[in-house]
């Protein structure tokens, strides 16, 4: 009966024979059966499919009706399979949760036929077997006692694979849906239309296949850990032997309590934490299907969760339960190491720890292919930009395009800049009303972030962490907002508790784009008050911007804002221009620290020309190096990086010495574009710093146009050519040629070359003509001079 090779006709004949065997005295024209039926299981809709499946099954479940009224649930087994108590209990449980409730349950293997009353579970023994007796039974069916119904729920949830798998699937889908939204819903982690593939997902699924019981997905805040869990659900759900239960554990609450709340809500029955634990234990020992528990956002100091994860991965629970935890890297170390951090904890011994880093080259290439299907194309040069590898930045940039009316209107492709610039802040400014709670509290925390940047006594580990994320120590935050407001921000998803590498209690900003805007406004306000000593103002600005994510962009935006408010003085710009970058060798005795993916904080000391000391986790090693291999560094890049972003804006300054407003962005483009050093942020990934370039005899560093646009100043040049009227653009290029500066002409050449494929045919033709007529000859003359 469970063999998938039988024909549909044979299957129907067997069903009819079994029903006739059980009720030979009922008119056959009144009996119908459903081999697929559904019932409401709390908030979940459960479908029972009684047809033979691809694999042999011991029993088939069928709903039999008499004159369109449910009469019995049939549990039909093969003739050579004995009837067990489990068969009877499952049939009774199906009948007890079905509405309207069939009064009978029939369990049959063709030879042995048992007819049971749904209400009592006892054999049905009517005084006479007739159609009248059946009608009497249907009329007199009473409501089940609550205890019996709860028992039915427990049996189906714990023993019926067909039921618990559907309940788990629906709970997971509901939990993910609750955390999903549209592009403009910034407080949810998931966007319905966006799920960029990650290699770590396949690695985790492979570990599950091998039977690993505990896996941690670790990474920096906003690195995309939650989306990896979502992708695991999406890909893993296609496998027949596994179901996934996704839980968000954003507070230090018991997993069993969280699970009991979820099950209680889903089933409309009170499931205690103890019962939730027992349910997991039963499922963990099943041989039919594995349950993978996906626990998202485990917070700092989750002692309760630590103990429960240790219990769930102990021998007390079976191999059928597997756990994946998404967790910030510093919290992961607390879970996986002992309290003194000198030994591995029980969780650390059992866990396969997977580190989620920003998108690597293969993932970024896959992301570009994925996004091209959404009519989103990235300009050449984007592959060199570390900032575009950050999921939150990528998501914000994509959201900017997806929500634009021009993109929504037609089928045109959108081309995205290879440079993350001021547009990132401009878009987020339109997304938030920072004057309204809870967003308004970010302005107060931004004051604390600025205070932190001026604290030279901060632990260097914290300083490195603050380079990659907006992090504020709890003690500093409490100077500006109350503990209650911090709790409210946490519950609203605006901040998240974190323990820094230095052991300090901190908060991570969950909406960095909003924090960047608030910092920009505060910086502009500070600069507006410093109208006399521009040298000190610039020094303060560089100190603040050098220690925060997107620091140069934030600084440029604050200056731009100051200009729009009429508070920008040309003397301030002059002070920035005076701080031109230069090429330097690394002197002996230089010390620096770096945070490397998968390694953590690494300390370096240049001992002399031939030796470097490398120290990590109290282990120190002296490395011999060829003096020629010690790279030169480019010092004092930040001022010109700030001006690179700023020069992409139209800037007009009223100066007492001028009779009319002065347009200074062309001046900035010329002076910054003439810099003889590379003006971009070096990548933390070495191979991403491998550019095609020319280094001239005088030390001038020239990026080859074959790289695309890598430098913000080159993108600003391109923006200037696109936005300005042709007369001003022509005038700018003609003046640039007269400077005979190889670096400037090379950047102009790259900007125009990347314009040749523009959808604006008039602009593309202009760029083509300018290259051929003026720029190429001028650049050749520079190289040959």
Automatic annotation (TrEMBL):
SUPFAM superfamilies the record matches: P-loop containing nucleoside triphosphate hydrolases
Type I restriction enzyme R protein N-terminal domain segment(s): 54-120
Gene3D superfamilies given in the database record: P-loop containing nucleotide triphosphate hydrolases
Superkingdom of the organism of origin: Bacteria
Protein name (record): Type I restriction enzyme HsdR N-terminal domain-containing protein
Lineage of producing organism: Bacteria, Pseudomonadati, Pseudomonadota, Gammaproteobacteria, Alteromonadales
């Amino acid at each position: 009966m469970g063999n998938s090779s039988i024909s549909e006709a044979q299957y129907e004949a067997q069903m009819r024979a079994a029903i006739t065997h059980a009720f030979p005295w009922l008119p056959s024209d009144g009996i119908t059966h459903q081999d697929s039926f559904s019932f409401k299981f709390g908030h979940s809709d459960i479908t029972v499919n009684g047809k033979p499946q691809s694999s042999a099954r011991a029993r088939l479940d069928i709903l039999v009706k008499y004159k369109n009224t449910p009469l019995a649930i049939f549990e039909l087994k093969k003739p050579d399979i004995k009837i067990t108590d489990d068969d009877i209990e499952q049939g009774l449980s199906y009948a007890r949760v079905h509405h309207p409730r069939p009064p009978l349950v029939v369990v049959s293997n063709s030879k042995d036929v048992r007819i049971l009353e749904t209400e009592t579970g006892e054999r049905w023994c009517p005084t006479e077997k007739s159609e009248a007796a059946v009608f009497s039974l249907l009329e007199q069916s009473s409501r089940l006692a609550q205890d019996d119904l709860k028992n039915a729920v427990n049996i189906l949830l714990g023993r019926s694979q067909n039921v618990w798998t559907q309940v788990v699937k629906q709970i997971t889908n509901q939990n993910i849906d609750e955390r999903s939204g549209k592009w403009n819903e910034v407080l949810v982690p998931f966007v319905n239309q966006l799920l960029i593939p990650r290699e770590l997902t396949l690695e985790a699924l492979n570990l599950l296949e091998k039977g690993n019981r505990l896996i941690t997905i670790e990474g920096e805040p906003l690195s995309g850990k939650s989306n990896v869990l979502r992708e695991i659900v999406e890909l893993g759900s296609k496998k027949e032997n596994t179901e996934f239960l996704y839980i968000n554990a954003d507070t230090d609450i018991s997993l069993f309590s969280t699970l009991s709340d979820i099950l209680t809500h889903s089933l409309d029955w009170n499931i205690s934490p103890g019962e939730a634990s027992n349910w997991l234990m039963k499922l963990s020992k099943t041989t039919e299907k594995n349950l993978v528990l996906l626990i998202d956002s485990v917070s700092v100091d989750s002692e309760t969760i630590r103990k429960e994860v240790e219990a769930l991965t102990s021998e007390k629970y079976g191999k059928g339960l597997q756990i994946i935890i998404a967790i910030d890297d510093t919290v992961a170390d607390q879970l996986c190491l002992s309290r003194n951090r000198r030994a591995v904890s029980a969780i650390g011994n059992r866990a396969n720890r997977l580190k989620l880093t920003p998108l690597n080259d293969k993932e970024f290439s896959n992301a570009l292919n994925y996004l091209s299907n959404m009519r989103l194309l990235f300009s050449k040069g984007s592959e060199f930009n570390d900032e575009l590898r950050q999921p939150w930045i990528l998501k914000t940039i994509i959201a900017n395009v997806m929500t634009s009316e021009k993109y929504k209107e037609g089928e045109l492709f959108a081309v995205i800049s290879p440079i993350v610039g001021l547009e990132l802040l401009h878009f987020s400014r339109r997304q938030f009303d920072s004057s309204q709670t809870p967003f308004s509290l970010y302005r107060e925390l931004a004051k604390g972030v600025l205070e932190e940047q001026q604290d030279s006594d901060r632990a260097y580990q914290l300083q490195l962490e603050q380079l990659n994320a907006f992090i504020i120590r709890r003690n500093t935050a409490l100077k500006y907002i109350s503990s209650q407001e911090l709790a409210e921000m946490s519950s609203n998803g605006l901040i998240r508790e974190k323990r820094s590498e230095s052991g300090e209690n901190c908060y991570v900003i969950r909406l960095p784009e909003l924090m960047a805007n608030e910092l920009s406004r505060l910086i502009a306000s500070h600069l507006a008050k410093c109208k006399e000593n521009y040298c000190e103002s610039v020094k303060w600005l560089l100190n603040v911007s050098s220690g925060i994510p997107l620091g140069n962009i934030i600084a440029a935006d604050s200056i731009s804002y100051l200009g729009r408010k009429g508070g920008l003085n040309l003397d301030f710009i002059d002070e920035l221009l005076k701080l031109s970058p230069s090429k330097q060798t690394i002197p002996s005795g230089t010390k620096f620290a770096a945070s490397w993916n998968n390694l953590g904080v690494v300390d370096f000391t240049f001992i002399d020309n031939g030796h470097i000391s490398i120290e990590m986790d109290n282990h120190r090693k002296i490395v011999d190096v060829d003096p020629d291999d010690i790279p030169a560094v480019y010092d004092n890049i930040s001022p010109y990086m700030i001006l690179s972003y700023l020069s992409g804006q139209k800037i007009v300054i009223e100066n007492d010495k001028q009779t009319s407003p002065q347009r200074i962005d062309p001046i900035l483009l010329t002076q910054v574009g003439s810099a003889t050093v590379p003006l971009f942020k070096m990548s933390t990934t070495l191979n991403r710093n491998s550019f095609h370039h020319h280094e001239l005899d005088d030390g001038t560093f020239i990026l080859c146009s074959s790289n695309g646009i890598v430098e913000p100043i080159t993108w600003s040049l391109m923006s200037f050519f696109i936005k300005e009227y042709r007369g001003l653009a022509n005038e700018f290029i003609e003046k640039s040629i007269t400077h005979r500066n190889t670096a400037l002409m090379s950047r102009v050449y790259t900007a125009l070359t990347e314009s040749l494929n523009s959808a604006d045919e008039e602009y593309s033709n202009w760029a083509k003509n300018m290259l051929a007529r003026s720029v190429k000859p001028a650049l050749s003359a520079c190289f040959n001079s």
